[in-house]
Amino acid sequence: MTKRYDLVIIGMGSGGMIAAEFAATIGVRVAVVERSRIGGDCLWTGCVPSKSLLASAKAAHTMRHADRYGLPAHDPAIDPQQVWDRIRSVQQSIAATDDNAERFEAMGIDVITGTAHLAGPREVLVDGVRRLKTRYVLLCTGSRPVVPDVEGLGAAGFLTSETLWDLERPPSSIALLGGGPIAVELAQAFARLSIRTTLLQKDPTILPRDEPELVELLAARLRREGVDLRVQAATDRVTIDGDRKVVHGTEDGRPTNWRAEEVFVAVGRRPNVEGLALDEVGVEHTPVGVTVDSRLRTTVPSVYAVGDLAGRHRFTHAAGYEAVRAVRDMFFPGKGRAVELVPWCTFTDPELAHAGLTVAEATEQHGDDVEVWRRDLAGSDRARTDGAEDGAMVLVTAKERIVGAHILAPAAGELIHELALAIRLEMKLGDLAGMVHVYPTIATEVGRLAGETAFQRARRLRWMVRWRRR
């Protein structure tokens, strides 16, 4: 028997769950097909386990350096098994409450377990036997780690973000290949948990999409904490020597090698397009992802794609945003566009948050109209009280409008939203200066940095000041 729906969603990760809930809220008949576990990468292999690990690592680091706060420093006896058990406990808690089939079924959503593919522009086939007719299809199948073509890597064995959390306990030493957010966050966490950590990045810098000035500060922090950070480090092959894996390559063109119990690969991600029968239906795709327009429609108008699969912005929050925009576009009058401005944050300590253009990107687009505004956290009262002076803010304006914002600070991921909104609304720094920022907070520095423009304007208008005698 064929059941008819208004919307069939393939994939129940971050994008699929939010899309299903929103669709149910507006009265859409919706089914979601998931071949594995509800929650997707974010819950099982991404944000939740990694941020749980980061929290444990930060606690250990704080204990180790408690003398900074006038307390006895103590090098904690770390049991990696307990850390891993806590990660799984957090995952199970979320799976049992927010990310479970019963919650979605209670909304009237049909949750179907199986492997789905497109059988037509308005038809989905599950496990080759169950046929779902629908007005629209939303593809939310996400992405998976790229495995580089390195000689001996497969034979030696390696970890990725998909397999790391399956270990009973982490290794005693690890070499991470890659310099993006995943590798950088985990490198700091491992080092703080007394795991000997080497980070190998083939480019001249880690986090190449972020503001270089702040990346340099963060890289120095990682090295001080014990991360053996190597840049311009190319990997040629991997061998095994006893109980260690040996990564062979070059650093600045000089042959060298690095030894560790495990090798972790984080060199990028590729979209999960296999098995969806996209070519048979006419849905175009590239190695980056499924091709979509500004409304998130594929080349087949009844089929939409969002999140990592679409390859626009590979972040959990972007997937959720795009999923809602796609459902709105399907069922509400007046078509809308998915915005390109998506802030992000690398959750190191301190965090590195990004919105809009870097200085180099702004200069390329706007030339001499660009001004750069900087403020170190060393001048922040809150940073001083918290022992968190390692950090800075960089704001970029073009014709006085804010076009880029970059923060290296505690809770930078929380702070960036004010500045992302300012960029979206094409605000000036003077507009932010007119807001009252709570003191003492790190956000106070946003107000102070913005206030510098008001002070400059006031200096130019000094001639207008009228003096009165009593």
Entry summary:
The chain is an alpha/beta fold. Helix content is 33%, strand content 26%. The protein is built from 15 helices and 21 strands.
Task: Describe the fold and architecture.
The structure is a single chain. The protein is an alpha/beta fold. The protein has three domains: 3-143 and 270-331, FAD/NAD(P)-binding domain; 153-268, FAD/NAD(P)-binding domain; 350-460, FAD/NAD-linked reductase, C-terminal dimerisation domain (Enolase-like, domain 1, 2-Layer Sandwich). It is built from 15 helices and 21 strands. Strands 1, 2, 3, 4, 5, 6 and 16 form a seven-stranded mixed beta sheet that branches. Strands 17-18-21-20-19 form a five-stranded antiparallel beta sheet, sandwiched between helices. A four-stranded parallel beta sheet has the order 10-9-8-14, with helices on one face. Helix 7 (181-192) links the parallel strand 8 and strand 9 (196-201). The protein is globular. The mean pLDDT is 94.
List the keywords.
single chain, 15 helices, FAD/NAD(P)-binding domain, alpha/beta, 3 domains, Enolase-like, domain 1, 33% helix, 470 residues, 7-stranded mixed sheet, 26% strand, globular, 5-stranded antiparallel sheet
Helix-strand blueprint:
Layout: E1 3-10, H1 14-25, E2 30-34, H2 40-44, H3 47-64, H4 80-97, H5 101-105, E3 110-113, E4 116-120, E5 123-126, E6 130-139, E7 143-145, H6 153-156, E8 173-177, H7 181-192, E9 196-201, H8 212-224, E10 228-231, E11 233-241, E12 244-251, E13 254-260, E14 262-265, E15 269-271, H9 278-281, E16 303-305, H10 316-331, E17 344-346, E18 351-356, H11 359-366, E19 370-376, H12 381-385, E20 392-398, E21 401-409, H13 412-424, H14 429-433, H15 444-460
Parallel strand pairs: 1-2, 1-6, 2-3, 6-16, 8-9, 8-14, 9-10
Antiparallel strand pairs: 4-5, 5-6, 7-15, 11-12, 12-13, 17-18, 18-21, 19-20, 20-21
